[in-house]
Predict the structure.
Amino acid sequence: MTTAARLQVLDRAEKEIMKLSRSDIGAVYEFMHKFRNNPHQPGINLKALQGDNRLLSARVKRDLRALLLHVTEQNYLLIGVEHRSAVYEDLDRFAYRINRVTGGIEVTELEPIDTRPVGDSIVGRVLSDVKESRPLFAEHSDAQLIRLGVAEPLLPRIRRLTSEDELMELLDRAPQLTTDVLFALFDGKSYDEVLKGITEPVQAHDEVDVEDLAAAVMRPATQVTSDDEALQFMLAGSFERWQVFLHPTQRKIVERRYSGPARIGGGPGTGKTIVALHRVVHLVRQLPPGSDRPILLTTFNRNLAADLRARLLALGGAEVVARVDVVTIDRLASRVVAENDSRAPKRKVDDSQGPQLWRRFLTGEIGTTGWDADFLASEWEQVILGQALSSRSDYFRARRPYRGRNLTRMERDQIWELTDRFVRWLAAQDLWTWRQVAVRAAVLETAHADAGSHRYKHVVVDEAQDLSAAHWRMLRAMVSSGPDDMFLTGDTHQRVYDNRVTLGSLGINIRGRSARLTLSYRTTRQILAAALEVMSGVTYDDLDGGDESLAGYRSLLQGGEPRFIGADSWDQERELIVEELRSCGTPADGSVAVCLPTRELVTDVVARLGKDGIIAVEIGPDGPQQSDGVHVGTMHRFKGLEYRKMIIAGVTDGLVPRQMIYRYRDSDPRRFQREQQRDRSLLFVACTRARDELAIFWHGTPSPFLSVRR
């Protein structure tokens, strides 16, 4: 008689499985299926280790063994996958126990097999600051470290640490909370700061029995998943990207019940999108049965929306996607208008064409007026459309934050008259900008809300920093105010469109319901340091009247230093790109990308690579046209993407930032600052798309954003 067993995977085992070859991953998958059907069948060879009936080993294949923890009679936890000799030669090094702070199961190796460091310290820590002869954590007692949640079996080893390299060696396989705590202390944070910011958010709410494995495996701190869910992602080669295992602090954010709108911030690669997707899955699973789509998942651009849909499908399955409306914010606004206003213009143009349309209107329709087309376009978009002003008197009373130049009543009267004529001129051509569509959609949806009708039960927004005020008004009207109504993720340091809002003024009050993610899972410490230099000395808003900070933003990954190379001319720089691609073997698997500031340079590089026989795939509005080849695109196109290696070229003064913004340096200093911030953010986004390698090129004078590299 066979006996089925339940088998779950601990996050520690997931990390080890990720390092295996594809064939070995397949062997693990096959083993787990066999074990689940009958753990005692021939060939599995289940046996106890070191006389402990709870710690077991089982045969995966000839030279590979699974390390298991027997939780209850038919429940097992896969806690490691090791080479056969590693399992049996030194059994005493394995230690498992329940963390008395989090209540989660932790498995440690007192002397790690692989002593090569795979982590790195928090950005900004200089190794020379640490005296080799003095223990790193001498200022903190054992009691303090235990209170912070450090794994107790590691304390003797921690006491002997005197260098960063030794710390890296220890934390290669240390539990997550131990890693977080020690890195924070190493970075100079105080005991109280670590206790409040790292330990308390993951502390167990119930009393912890350090002998009760069954209770421990059910706690969020024991990060586990089912065999099928984990291994299928691994076999697809995308497990790391999907981040099925949430960090305990992320899981608390995902599963928390909020009394109103909540916002999650954090730098690139910290898992904001992953948190948003898990939040959607969590909300779907709280829904009663049905076939409707009461949850909205939206973002700004098309390639991000397509990526969100694909990720959600892989994470939650078709049954989850069936209950979620995944759509870009502009397409959603267009849908609202099409449903309610049959007379609305049908042709739509990108908002970036606003200045060009205004110039055509001023010169071709009414002649020169003395007003600058760029100023009028910005005033119309940011103030009149941005605040959905519907009358001259509304405009006279309107505040004009971030605009810089003050206007007299007479000037406002002139601008209102011009914008009224401009809108009628567009309508005569059956033409709208997308910002006009959003404003109209907000008005229509607000009318429905006032009548007690709402489209959605929950709204989840990714890349929230790119939405305009009209978008937010529309979204606010689409969902009734109440618990778990809106969940927003974003980083204003990555804002690449000139949309500045204060959510509280739009009826979206996030005070007391905000959280920040600070640990980057994507890029190395070295690349992160270079990206942060781009942003140094600049202040960004937090969407609610305060400042956004990247303080504490860090990576645990280590890699090579980014390369910064200048050329005398664009022709020489273009050859540098070709040489750089050749030096890395010109991989055609879509893992390498070339990022440029203009479409003209993109076209030029694609043509040059083609002449050299290199497959170049241009990134369009819906993402790369195909997955293989070397991906080439403008900085705007790289939002939401990531690559093993990034080459950012054309980082030249006059291109990054654009030469045209210098016209505002004296005439409109605030606008100059905004435009400069946008271009700085674009470069920051591009830098943080790189996982392992980053090369930055320029010709002539380098961008002032790279001043530290001159």
Remarks:
- DSSP finds 27 helices and 27 strands in the chain.
- The two ends are 74 Å apart (CA to CA).
- Confidence is low (pLDDT under 50) at residues 112-132, 233-243.
